[in-house]
Amino acid sequence: MKKTYVIKQNHEFRRLYHRGKSVANRYLVLYCLKNRLGHNRLGLTVSAKYGCAVERNRAKRLFREAYRLHEAEFKPGFDFVLVARARMQGASCADVEKALLKAARDLHVVQDVKEGMNG
């Protein structure tokens, strides 16, 4: 099983917010920035305004699962930060997956799976 590398340091989050490109949609905001590593890293943010701890943890679980299911489709060498928006409360896993993939396509960080297999 592939390990997902995480972003935990505050300065790394701030670097992504200031220098990274972002796309927002109904459920989330996706920030991305190239890193000099050979792998992707993921950071998750859910504000205290979002709701109680149970709701915030559910949002983070949905983010992690959506990313895990499509991790192979992301181009390597990027840092990603996912920020939950208020409308995400009550969203299904499929909704979050679609929103994540749409945002990633808008930032051109998703590679076609068929390309990766042929090349």
TrEMBL record:
RNaseP catalyzes the removal of the 5'-leader sequence from pre-tRNA to produce the mature 5'-terminus. It can also cleave other RNA substrates such as 4.5S RNA. The protein component plays an auxiliary but essential role in vivo by binding to the 5'-leader sequence and broadening the substrate specificity of the ribozyme. GO terms for biological process: tRNA 5'-leader removal. One of its GO terms (molecular function) is tRNA binding. PANTHER family: RIBONUCLEASE P PROTEIN COMPONENT. Belongs to the RnpA family. The keyword Transmembrane helix does not apply. This is Ribonuclease P protein component.
